Amino acid sequence: MTTLNRRSFLKASALSGGGLLLSSFIKVTDTRPPVVDKAEMQMVFNQLNGFVKITADNVIKIMSPNPEGGQGVKTSMPMIVAEELDVDFSKIIIEQADLDTKHFTRQFIGGSQAIHQGWKALRTAGATARQMLMEAAAKTWNVPLEEISTKLGVLHHKKSNKSAKYGEMATAAAQIPVPKDVKLKSVKDFKIIGKSQRNVDLEKIVSGKPLFGIDTKVEGMKIAMIVHPPAMGLTFKAVQNELAIKKMKGIVAVFPIKIFNDDYEKTFFDTTQFNEVVAVIGNSTWEVMQAKKSLKVEWKEAEAYAEKRNMNGRKTTLNIPAGLESSADHAKKFVEKMTQSANVRRKDGDIETAFTNAAKVIERTYNGPFLAHNCMEPMNFFAHVTDEKAELIGPLQKPEFTEQALSARLGMPLEKIDIKMTRLGGGFGRRSYAHWLIEAALISQQVKAPIKLIYTREDDMTAGIYRPAYAAKYRAALDADNNLIGFHVKVGGMPQSPLAPNRFPAGAVDNYLAEDFTIDTNLTVGSYRAPHSNFMAAAEQSFLDEVAETAGKDPIAFRLALLKRAKENPVGKNNDYDADRFAKVLELVREKSNWENTKATKKLGFSAYFCHDSYAAHVLDLEMKDGIPIINKVFCAIDCGIVVNPNAAKNMAEGGIVDAIGAAMYGKMTFTKGVPDANNFHNFRMIRHNEAPKAIDVFFVENTEDPTGMGEPAYPPVHAALANALYKATGKRLYQQPFNEYLQT
Amino acid sequence: MAKYNLKINGKTQQVDVDPSTPMLWVLRDHLNMVGTKFGCGMAQCGACTVHLDGNAVRSCSLPVSVVGKGAITTIEGLSADATHPIQKAWLEHDVAQCGYCQSGQIMSATALLKNNPKPTDADIDAAMSGNICRCGTYLRIKEAIKSVASPLTPNGGKK
Ligand code: FES
Ligand code: FES
């Protein structure tokens, strides 16, 4: 379970012109075991959340510190502050904060952690501001503090029939010492949290107002694009027709840029597939696109190298081989690795004896391909770099880390770098690796002008940083009574392992072995919606379906029995999940989908997974028409603690389900001699309107647990729910993604 | 370069651009109308959808030279304050996640409803399948379209 040590620092100051400015810093030391993305989770977070401004003329502003990429934090984080502040949510102004390491930390998107980690901090920020306003009123009116109450932004003193808007007391409140302990509301008194609020940017979205990075425009701005090597494993050698390109209409400059210096020690998110690219700069996008097509560049094979990384002092080395890789060779490597010894990550009981004594042994191997993120807004960034300062505007997930990398690259102190965050047209992990911000800055520096760098879709899809490719071999041992007595998983990835060895069914089986391996590659990878879990859930939950079938048991009852065991008499101590909460989502989806009464007649697939501190279980109902699956309905049960913004959370679950069905059915990125086999949406198939489920019902477990992740947990169980339903409908088990290709064969 | 007088959202606008320039970039780069989005540049994603004489077209693949006297409508032309029935339906259904695809989705949906005020599910699928949403908001989009199409709610949107 999560252990958090919290210390809070709150600071009040007066606004110029009168009013209260409350900054609230909450330090969070995250000491959880590295369950998701090891590098990401072992960090010590310094977190600040909440930034309340109340002017003397009663404008109430709540700053939203984290970048917004569709996960809804720009609405839900201010909702939490507003709840404790006791204001009318429809009347406050919500603003995206810039990257501001003085006032905020953990300003990033990742790991579905914004609400989870921000919960207490955001509430404390709101409650503290309210308390200070009340103290200011008590002092001004000369009445006891206990007699002051608030209602929707107004302070009241009943006995004297006095009342004042927050704004009227804001300047006085700024003089009040920040209270150390404030009382937070009890869950039953929540008025904003738990009531759906509409996406605060929606009016702008539906009327086409500039919101996204790609919409940035300033006076004198040039458009820049890059040309990167056509294959992974190649690097820059020379531009061959520079003069001809420069003569083209509207073209200003052509030159190579080097993203990271050779001696630079990379940190968490400094991944880039191509360290040297050619920049083309011109007056308009279309002119630059034409020049880009005419540009001739000589490339050469890159040499093998050891990439040194420094993750908060933890030094690692990644071996990057030379060569032009093909997917066919990758497949062979996975097969080979499966026969070799791997790293034992967890071992319980006596696995060898269990398999020797088994009445039945089931063994299956699963594969998942590389995937491109394909955010709808292609990568882009605005930069204006002068000798004095660097101004950057655009969409990114990890501004603080990227700012550090840029500072090192430009040799410019952090104080001179200003990063403004725009709404992200999708992130899904891809915008954590903001090499394009550095590219934009270097281009601007060299052309001495403000520029906006835009990737074409082709640049975006073929610039590396994919979901890793994976393979997993599962083995299960059943005794004569069909009890699961042994469970063995051996899994690997290129170049990262997806294994979380202490997740279910660890803890529920006496004899358990989890091992992993990695395979070196010169393809770059990065977090992809529900990193690693997106594959582990697919493989494990497909496998458990087959094990339950072999055991002659109902797939839900089979898992519930294991969870009961894990709760009552767990094997080992380090199990990541709460078996009770996990079981509840299984029971909830079983009930809501009417599983028991329909499983014999309908083609239903079940799957459940725990990750990002939340629990999710799905039942997927489909039928085949002319060899094509028609998904009638997906039932989804989730336990993410208190649901802050129910309709938005439902939207996240629906989106996660649709997105995951698309990835499972159609998603793949393969390579031929280093060249990506897909480069745009005509050859990278995305799920479309007609392929989405006809209906999705989302049910939340009602409880008073602190809220946990919602951006990702609905995603991982989808693949297996789909595979298991497809098995019911076609009699065919699916072991490889994308399912569409293997359904036909 | 050539001069074009374009009819956009009821106003005539002059631009001086290369004849091959797609309307998408005319709008975004030359006329500062950034509601129309770039997604793929090859008529595969629908992010750049506008209307040409009332029909949904992909502006990334529509050279300015072929527009002629055609009337272009962009997302900005529906209404400036999100009061068009479709925009209202989008608000009521809280459709968007990241929102990047949504102006294209809305333009495809308005063209559909103009030509077919009571579309069936299959009609909606057929008209909307050129619009990708990576965030997966398809179900809400369909609900929003149906709410405007529904005979019970002639003024756009149901509660
Ligand atoms: S940008 Fe025009 S269809 Fe994708
Ligand atoms: S809302 Fe993000 S792509 Fe559609």
How would you describe this structure to a colleague?
The complex is a heterodimer of chains A (745) and B (159). By secondary structure, chain A is α+β, with helices and mostly antiparallel strands. Chain A has three domains: 2-186, Aldehyde Oxidoreductase, domain 4, CATH 3.30.365.10; 219-305 and 373-462, Aldehyde Oxidoreductase, domain 4 (2-Layer Sandwich), CATH 3.30.365.10; 329-371 and 466-743, 2-Layer Sandwich (Aldehyde Oxidoreductase, domain 4), CATH 3.30.365.10. Chain A contains 19 helices and 30 strands. In chain A, the strands form eight sheets. In chain A, strands 11-12-9-21-18-19-20 form a seven-stranded mixed beta sheet, with helices on both faces. A five-stranded mixed beta sheet of chain A has the order 1-2-3-4-5, covered by helices on one side. A five-stranded mixed beta sheet of chain A has the order 16-24-23-22-17, with helices on both faces. Chain B has 159 residues and is of the alpha+beta class. Helix content of chain B is 34%, strand content 16%. Chain B contains six helices and five strands; from the N terminus they run E-E-H-E-E-E-H-H-H-H-H. Chain B has helices spanning 23-30, 75-78, 85-92, 102-115, 121-128, 138-149; strands at residues 2-8, 11-17, 49-52, 55-58, 71-73. In chain B, strands 2-1-5-3-4 form a five-stranded mixed beta sheet, sandwiched between helices. In chain B, a hairpin with a 2-residue loop joins strand 1 and strand 2. At the A-B interface, helix 5, helix 7 and helix 17 of A face helix 1, helix 2, helix 3, helix 4 and helix 5 of B. One FE2/S2 (inorganic) cluster is lined by residues 38-41, 43-48, 58, 60 of chain B.
What does this entry show, briefly?
With 745 residues, chain A is an alpha+beta fold. Chain A has three domains: 2-186, Aldehyde Oxidoreductase, domain 4, CATH 3.30.365.10; 219-305 and 373-462, Aldehyde Oxidoreductase, domain 4 (2-Layer Sandwich); 329-371 and 466-743, 2-Layer Sandwich (Aldehyde Oxidoreductase, domain 4). In chain A, strands 11-12-9-21-18-19-20 form a seven-stranded mixed beta sheet, with helices on both faces. Chain A has a five-stranded mixed beta sheet with strand order 1-2-3-4-5, with helices on one face. In chain A, strands 16-24-23-22-17 form a five-stranded mixed beta sheet, with helices on both faces.
